[in-house]
Write a structure and sequence with these properties.
This protein is α/β, with parallel strands linked by helices. The chain has 2 domains: 5-152, Cobalamin-binding domain (Rossmann fold); 195-473, Aldolase class I (TIM Barrel, Alpha-Beta Barrel), CATH 3.20.20. The protein contains 18 helices and 20 strands. A 7-stranded mixed beta sheet has the order 3-1-4-5-6-7-8, with helices on both faces. Helix 4 links the parallel strand 5 (93-96) and strand 6.
């Protein structure tokens, strides 16, 4: 008897972004594909990052089920492709991912079934029900059609034991990703940096006001993976594809310093040559509890960079974000990491809270003073399922197309500046930082910095030209109504008037 064939599809976003600089699928589709593979299904994962996905390619697999990863910035492309696929096959179309979870109404027009929150168990239950004619109402975490409407079955329990094993062989195109001169010397494929996602934990014990983790997972909780399973995943990907660069895509890596230390030690002991190299998202205040020995082990284990979620250099803004950190934490963390030659990427969500233009521009001097090697600036956004959305939904600019929710376009009415000012200042600040090259850096680093940041920033900015015009039109209307008013420090938003005008 033929195994059911399941094709998973992940499409690129419409517009350029810093995220598209990586030749790397999202972890969700990696995990779900591997879970289905372990369950005995015939699985193929098609991702634009390994070669543009076509309708013909999907249909050539003769799939019994088709799963799309619903990402907001590519949802228009997903919708168009799903509708074309539906015209040529009766196979059920299942949509999961971020957009399906936070805005399921945005995928219901082209989905047969919607998977919300963590899909590890849900997808297995859904496929089983589709095969056997089981009751969908008993499967938590899905939406299905009934009597002309949609039924939501409720939130599933959190996945406390993350025990699947990644299978890189299910990815079309992954095996050949490291072939060629540029891939081997510069780790580049199709003008993208080659990397692969790895997860050591899910969730985060902190409650930042802008974070949508609880909405994505459905319920609170922080759960770690077995370190042996993580190492096996890394080894399997390296053996199959030759990839040595890994992005640890946890919401927060190393919350438990004991877990982190064991991870470092076991990676060091397991891998000889080639050794894997890692990047990870962390908080600055974590390093208060990291000993010098831990940071030294971190370096030895192959951690080349740490992405610190800094958000702002304005303490009042950090307090509004419920970060639980002080700006001084950033100084201490960066200096300690730099002393062990671990590069710091400072990530900032600018223009929210009490941020003024001076706070955005000031990030350049702040980063240079600390000798940070990279900074990413993203205009602060307010998304469904967050505390910010509950309290400040009125700040979200209406009628913004999905493709502009890529982290680079301004999507809110900031309180202390005009939207167009925030948009232009975000790019000007990054440009000012990256245009001064540190000639002491290695050649490969310089090439990456020029190709993948300086050029990329200008490309991203250019792609938002029409959006900038849209912002200027919107803010002009608000200025005329007295909702934005000039002050001695710039523009001020009258939130009361904004609420009353909507």
């Amino acid at each position: 008897m033929r195994l059911e064939k399941i094709v998973l599809v992940e499409l690129d976003s419409d517009l350029p972004s810093l995220g598209k600089l990586l030749a790397m699928p999202r972890y969700g589709i990696t995990a779900i594909g591997s879970i289905l593979d372990e369950a005995g299904y015939d699985v193929k994962v098609l991702c634009d990052v390994y070669g543009k996905v076509s309708i013909e390619e999907i249909l050539s697999e003769n799939p019994d089920y088709i799963l799309f990863n619903g990402i907001k910035t590519s949802i228009d492309r997903v919708r168009a492709m799903a509708n074309e696929v539906r015209a040529k096959t009766d196979s059920p179309i299942i949509i999961g991912g971020e957009e399906a979870t936070t805005s399921p109404e945005n995928v219901q027009d082209f989905a047969d079934y919607v998977v919300l929150h963590e899909g590890d168990k849900t997808i297995l239950d859904l496929i089983k029900a589709l095969k056997s004619g089981g009751e969908f109402s008993k499967i938590k975490g899905i939406m299905y059609k009934k009597s002309g409407g949609w039924v939501y079955t409720g939130k599933p329990e959190r996945i406390e034991e993350i025990n699947h094993h990644l299978n890189p062989e299910i990815f079309r195109g992954l095996k050949d990703i490291k072939k060629g001169f540029l891939a081997k010397w510069l780790n580049i494929s199709g003008l993208r940096l080659i990397s692969f996602p790895i997860q050591t934990s899910r969730g985060c014990p902190y409650e930042c006001s802008f974070c949508s983790k609880d909405a994505q997972f459905g319920k609170k909780g922080y759960f770690e993976r077995d370190i042996g399973d993580v190492i096996e995943d890394i080894d399997r990907v390296m053996e199959y594809s030759g990839i040595t660069e890994f992005a640890i895509v946890d919401n927060l890596f190393g919350y438990s310093k004991e877990y982190a230390k064991e991870f470092f030690e076991r990676v060091i002991a397991y891998f000889e040559k080639p050794k894997p190299r890692f990047s990870a998202l962390m908080r600055a205040d974590q390093f208060k509890g990291f000993s010098d020995e831990n940071i030294s082990l971190m370096k030895k284990a192959g951690f080349k960079s740490v992405n610190l979620g800094m958000e702002s250099i304005n303490q009042k803004t950090l307090d509004q974000y419920d970060k639980g950190e002080v700006v001084g934490d950033y100084d201490a963390a960066v200096k300690r990491l730099d002393a062990h030659d671990i590069a710091v990427l400072g990530s900032f969500a600018v223009g929210g809270g009490e941020d003024r233009l001076a706070d955005v521009y000031g990030i350049v001097n702040f980063a240079r003073r600390l000798k940070m090697r990279q900074i990413h600036l993203y205009p602060f956004s307010i998304t469904p399922g967050t505390k910010e959305y509950k309290e400040h939904k009125h700040l979200v600019i209406p009628s913004i197309p999905d493709k502009y929710w890529n982290g680079h376009a301004v999507t809110i009415f900031p309180k202390k500046m005009l939207p167009s000012e925030l948009q232009e200042t975000t790019f000007n600040t990054m440009w000012n930082f990256y245009r001064s090259y540190h000639l002491s850096l290695p050649l490969k680093t310089l090439i990456h910095k020029f190709l993948f940041y300086t050029i990329a920033i200008r490309r991203i900015e250019k792609s938002l030209t029409s959006h900038l015009d849209f912002l200027k039109t919107k803010e002009a209307e608000l200025i005329e109504k007295g909702i934005y008013q000039r002050s001695s420090e710039g523009w001020e938003l009258d939130e009361g008037k904004l609420i009353n005008s909507s």
